[in-house]
Amino acid sequence: MNLLILNENDQLSDNQFIITDHRANHILNILKLSVGSQLNLGLIDKFTGIGIIEKIDNKKITITIKESHEKIKALQSINIICALPRPQTIKKILFIAGMTAIRNIFFIRANRVEKSFFQSPLLDKKEYMKYLIEGMSQGKQIFLPNVSFHTKFKPFFEDYLPDNFDKNNNNYRLLPDMEASSTINSVYKKSDSNILLAIGPEGGWVPFEIEMMKSLGFKKFKLSDYTLRVEHALMASISQLELINTQ
Predict the structure, then answer these.
(1) Burial 74-94 (b: 16+ CB within 10 A, else e)
(2) For the domain that residue 153 is a member of, what is the CATH number?
(3) How many CB atoms lie within 10 A of CB 114?
(4) Per the CB 3.0–4.6 Å rule, which of 10, 22, 81, 161 could disulfide with 17?
(5) Beta-sheet strands, E only, within the chain
(6) Neighbour tally for 34: CB within 10 Å
(7) Distance from C-alpha of 113 to C-alpha of 124, rounded to nearest angstrom
């Protein structure tokens, strides 16, 4: 736990919070902290800071904020369009999204996505939130990604995307593809603009899907010579974008 992630439901007063769940167990049994100990914390979408454990009562921990820092802007505004993978991979995608302060994750149906994946209990917010929070704690991020699920490919790109991301409103649309000849440097330059990154299923997008995305302004780039798993392709793409933006 690099950063204790708090939410408004934990808040007792302006500067006091109470936690009783797995976070309390981690603090007591893994970190082995006690009354008077300090720890790094963050309130979702609000601030980061340092807290002091004031009281421990039957695994209920009261924490007082010692100091807080203003909300820090995320390094990039990255939005992920991801063909819905199998549940175990969804967990990894959510973790990465929380760790790297992804703005939005759009899980969509694609030709090579099994229908049964959309029946997974993991698509319930109560189930998937914990993986976002774990990622945020790992990456010391307080930005909670928005997650949505879309069961139809064409309506997502023809209706939802134009309504939420204007093609002409200065945003980069990127499509990793093993068949591409250009690297990311040729399709993306250092920018504060929104980024839409489309990550396909492990079997790849079918030609129709690729052509539709290209018609909507998505630029293909070669991510690797290797066939990557979905979560590895996502992390590699984010890392390349971060490298360009921090040069």
Answers:
(1) eebbbbbbbbbbbbebbbbbb
(2) 3.40.1280.10
(3) 12
(4) 10
(5) 4-6, 11-13, 16-19, 38-43, 47-57, 60-69, 78-83, 104-108, 146-150, 171-176, 194-199, 219-221
(6) 10
(7) 18
Number of domains in the chain: 2
Largest CA distance in the chain: 61
Q: How would you write the pLDDT of the chain (247 residues) with one tens digit per residue?
A: 899 999 999 999 989 999 999 999 999 999 999 999 999 999 999 999 999 999 999 889 999 999 988 766 655 689 999 999 999 999 999 999 999 989 999 999 999 999 999 999 999 999 999 999 999 999 999 999 999 999 999 999 999 988 887 665 668 999 999 889 999 999 998 887 889 999 999 889 999 999 999 999 999 999 998 889 999 999 999 999 999 988 7
Of the residues 47, 69, 91, the one at which a domain ends: 69
- The boundaries of the domain holding residue 29 are 4-69
In the sheet that holds 60-69, the strands lie side by side as 4-6, 38-43, 47-57, 60-69, 16-19, 11-13
User: Which residue, among 196, 92, 194, 90, has the nearest Cα to 149 in the 3D structure?
Assistant: 90
Looking at the structure, tell me whether residues 115 and 237 fall in a common domain: yes
| Structure-token pair, residue 183 | 């690297």
- Same domain? 99 vs 59: no
CA distance 128 to 42: 20
Tokens found for residue 127: 């189930």
Residue 66 contacts residue 49 (beta carbons within 8 Å): yes
